[in-house]
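User: I'm putting together a small comparison set for a docking exercise, and I want a reference complex before I start. The sequence is below, and the ligand is phosphoenolpyruvate. Could you produce the 3D structure with the ligand included, as structure tokens?
Assistant: Of course. I'll restate your input first, then give the structure tokens for the complex.
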Amino acid sequence: MASDGDSSGDPRVIGLVLVSHSARLAEGVAELAAQMGGGDLRIGVAGGLDQPGRPLGTDATLVRRAINEVWSEDGVLVLMDLGSAVLSAEMALDLLPEERRGQVLLTAAPLVEGAVAAAVAAGLGEPLEKVAEEARGGLAAKAAHLGPEAAGAAPAAGGAERVPAGASPSARLTVRNRFGLHARPAALFVRTAARFDADVTVANVTAGSRRVSARSLNAVATLGVRHGDEILVQTSGRQAEEALAAIRRLASDGFGEPADVGEPGPPAGPPACTPPPEAGAVLRGLPASPGVAVGAARRLQAAPVEIPDTPADDPAAQWAALERALAAVAADIRRTRGSVAGHAGDGEAAIFDAHLLFLEDEALLEPARDGIVHGRTGAARAWADAVSAAARAWDALDDPYQRARAADLRSVGDQVVRRLVGTPSPIFPGGEGIVVAPDLTPAETAALDRSGIQGIACAFGGPTAHSAILARSLGIPAVVGIGVGLLDVGDETLLVLDGEAGTVTVDPPPDVVQAARDRGARWTKHKTEAQKRAHLPAVTLDGVTVPVVANVAVSHDVPAAVAAGADGVGLLRTEFLFLEADHMPTEDEQELAYRQAAEALAGRPLTVRTLDAGADKPLPCLPLTPERNPFLGVRGLRLGLSRPELLVTQLRAVLRVAAGHPVRVMFPMVTTVDEVRRARELLDEARASLAASGVAAPARIEVGIMVEVPAAALTAEAFAPHVDFFSVGTNDLAQYTLAAERGNAEVAALGDPLHPAVLRLIHHTARAAGQGGKRVAVCGEVAGDPLAIPLLLGLGIGELSMAPARIPLAKQAVRATDTRLARRLAESALAAGSAAAVRRLCGGSPA
Ligand code: PEP
Ligand code: MG
């Protein structure tokens, strides 16, 4: 229908676009509005994200698409729900061609009522401005009907100050925390405010500061609220009263800080740090890699990051890259938080909550977005500038303790920049020494320059944590799970690290140093003798040949594995290839990596494990939905089956290499036979697609599964017809059987793979494999433990896969075994009552 003012004769119908975090909400509102507006309305929706597993969110590209779909020369009105919907709509506007931009209007109108009012006006052929005005007035009818909401409301809980009807509830609160509202209590304040459907602002009355939004940690913490300061909290919105009551309760609880930190008392200043361990102190942890090291403590140092200053011409791609980096860093921080909470308690871990809030703080995201869209800068530059500006506000605070938190912000900001520019980790400072670190993430592990590292000492983590696996693969001594005290050891302090006893001695006297050097020398001699025979097959005393193969992370580790005597590769952990990349490695990139590994093996077998990633092993190039319990979530083959395009690409790359080399493929974290069936279908699909494009692929490739889930071990006979081999991943099998997270030092002793419960699962798997005529290997860390090798052979294991550096001694252990005696040892171990009893049977001390 044309309005009076329309002289063209064509009906004037403006386009409407509804932007919401939820696709269902956007579509529902569109349906309602279409019904109300009638006629030929053009209503486009941009709801949710176009990403599997991440339904909620907003995306500028989808908004731009919706605008183009409903495009009208008369104009387009965009209505949004909240938060990032507004940002995405603004960004979409920037992404439109210049000539269209001027005809699009973003309105602050409420989504539902605004859309209905706008649809009615648009249906009447009103011009854009009039439709926008109608949309903005969408709430008028409801407001007139219900009247002022504050009138007659119940008294506020918690004694909130009553305010005149229609005004915001508010309260003046005195901050009693000794260090004021520094990062941790401020983080709790922000989280509490965010729980409610309310707008919360806060001002520092004592300092006469401006009001800031309680949604921003940077804004709240840089108010500079000190002990004794008064703050004014104001709330508005549907749950204004509840929000205020919760904040009052929080304030009277000292903003979550224990009394000695929360209460005032002399002396004022930062909380006392624990003194560094005294000279001669012996710090106890968990043995992670055998050997003795004597060297200077060396902390990892940040590698210099170069941020490209070149202008970026695709803002949407830059923003998406920033979002991916933020999600990956958040996953890293959550992982560290879990580890610290497990070891040192929730109080110690709370600082990581503040770090997580930085990553979602509008005070950083808004200027970063502005830099990307308007300044046309790359994501890394825009984010780094936003962080520097916010950190300067922290630097300007009077209180030295609060000021020091700028370092936290810079460090979190730096992690994001590293993700973006592909320099993911700190580096070893060079020279010789012992790495001292809280823990090593998989990304840090991958990026570590290994030369000069004499030993690794970690405050957190267990013997199957990545830091420990790295240490064993390098053949360097390591102790993990030492506790936070380790982090107080000064740089350059002389340490003696004993990887077998699991101890680190700080600044030891000369006789201890000498004794350690002697033991180190004996250990080296022992290893050298084993190395001399490493290239010979490992044959037991009664003539059974046991292939001893290597676990490697990347293809360039293979030559070292061959040099160490590996009879092949039993586990190529392909996720490391993905970890180092800022994009998903292409089929060609993967093919090259696998080919290099196969060629370096010169005819020895190569077992490629498909991508074993998930929220517990996050990849920078693969955004994943955070999970409450990632070890029980979408990891391993589950992820591959949920993203079949990734798995098929990988399988095509593997098949191409298998055309000319003895390559096997192995699926991780398998739980059911159906998963294997589906994986094999994808393998057939990959083979067929190669054949269709004339690329060579073998008609048959050996397929195996990792037995890491107790259900798979217990039903191994059902899997046998579908696989060529089994490989028992004892690192995960132990954690799932004994309910002891593998990276958590507190429960590391519980998660012992020599526990009889785990041994029974290994035994059951080996028996089912034998009956089905299939091979069975162990590729968890226990396979390389000389103490455990006779037992594993006695349980029926036919192949051992381990860190290359362990191969020479493992082969020696095989050579010293008689499988008939080993079977008797296994029988006793299966009947034992505890892991300690098994270790005694094996001739070792209880772990
Ligand atoms: C295992 O779980 O034992 C294993 C070898 O896999 P990863 O350590 O890579 O999880
Ligand atoms: Mg595993």
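Residues 664 and 702 are 5 Å apart (CA to CA). Residues 708, 729, 731-732 surround magnesium ion (ligand 2) (CB under 6 Å).
User: Thanks, that's exactly what I needed.
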